[in-house]
Amino acid sequence: xxxxxxxxxxxxxxxxxxxxxxxxxxxxxxxxxxxxxxxxxxxxxxxxxxxxxxxxxxxxxxxxxxxxxxxxxxxxxxxxxxxxxxxxxxxxxxxxxxxxxxxxxxxxxxxxxxxxxxxxxxxxxxxxxxxxxxxxxxxxxxxxxxxxxxxxxxxxxxxxxxxxxxxxxxxxxxxxxxxxxxxxxxxxxxxxxxxxxxxxxxxxxxxxxxxxxxxxxxxxxxxxxxxxxxxxxxxxxxxxxxxxxxxxxxxxxxxxxxxxxxxxxxxxxxxxxxxxxxxxxxxxxxxxxxxxxxxxxxxxxxxxxxxxxxxxxxxxxxxxxxxxxxxxxxxxxxxxxxxxxxxxxxxxxxxxxxxxxxxxxxxxxxxxxxxxxxxxxxxxxxxxxxxxxxxxxxxxxxxxxxxxxxxxxxxxxxxxxxxxxxxxxxxxxxxxxxxxxxxxxxxxxxxxx
Length: 449
What we know:
With 449 residues, this protein is α+β, with helices and mostly antiparallel strands. Helix content is 49%, strand content 20%.
C-alpha cells in the first residue's frame, strides 16, 4: 500500500518545479517558452501520477482485503480438513502421501511424521494389493475420475486390519493430466457387523420360507405318489403297466426321502451340500416324473455335450428345476411346448456392471421356456415373493424357495415373459472349478441394462 510519505515526496517535487518556473523568468524569451512547455508537461504528468497512485492505493487495499479473505478461507479449509470425521489423504499420482488429517492418523494409529512420505499401498493388506494397484492405475490414466464406496481392507501401523470404504478422486491440471490424488475413507467395521446381523436375520427368515417350500414340494410328491398307486390299481390286469407305475412311485419316494434329508441338513447348518453333478441327468429324471400326466405337452431338451458340470447341492437344484418345470406345465393347461436349453458362460467382472451380482467365474446358464399365456407385468416383479400366487390352490412358496436356493448357491434366477407369448426362466448355476480347459471357447454373457 502507498503511504503518506510517498504523497509528500511527490508534492515536494512539484514545489521545486514551481520555484524553477519562477527562476526561468530571468532567462531569454526563447528559453522561457521551452522551459514553460516542459513544466506544463511535467504538471500534467504530476496529475496523472497522482491519479495512478490513488488507483494503486485502492488496488492495494483490495489486494490486502483479498489476502485476508483468502487466509480465512485457507484456515476454514484446514479446519474442515483437520477435523473431518472421515480420514482424508492427499497423495501424488503414484500414491505417495504428503498430507493427512487427524482422522486418518487416528484410523492408521500413527503420527503425522510417520505417515508423510509413505506409500498408501503400505497400509493395504497383501490380499488387496492387486485390486488397489488396478484402481490406482485407472485414476492415474484418468480412466476413472472418481470412485465411490470402494471397499478394501487396510492395516494400521499396529498391523491391525479393518475394512474401509474409499472414495478416490484424481486432481488434474489445465491440460487434463493427473497431478495428484485425493482419498476419503472411513472404517466400516460397524457396517460390516450390521450387514452380518442382517444376513443372520435373513437366513432365519429364509430357512422358514424353505421349510414351507419343502412342505409344499412334499405335498406335490405325495399327490404324485397317490396318483401312481391309483393308476397301478387301474392297471392291475397288466403287470407291465403296474410295474411301471410302481417304479415311478418308488422314484417319488426317493425324492421325498431326499427332501427329508434336506431338512436335517438345515437343522445342522450343512446347507448346501455341494458336489459336482450333471444337470442333464437331473433334468431327465425330473421330466420322467413330471411329464407323465401331461400328454398334451411336448418337451424339447437341447443341452450341448460339453455343458459344464455343476458344483451344487443336487437335491436342491433338482428341486428348483422341478419347480420351474411344474410352473411351465401348469401355465399350459390346454397343451403347448417346453424348451430346455443350456450354455456355458464365463462371467467377466468388466461385463458385470449392469448384470445380476455374480462372481467372476464359470457358470452354466439353463433356460426353461414355455408357450403359455405369459405373466402380466404387474405380477412379474412379485413371482419370487413368498406366498405370492395367482393359483387357487397354490401356496406361493415354490418359486420363492427356488430363488432362495439359487442365491445360496451364489447363482442367479431371472424371468423374461410377455403376455400371449410365453415365459422363460434363466438359471445361472456355478460350474465346477475344474473347467479351465474350456476357457478359450467360453461364450461371453449378454449385458442386461
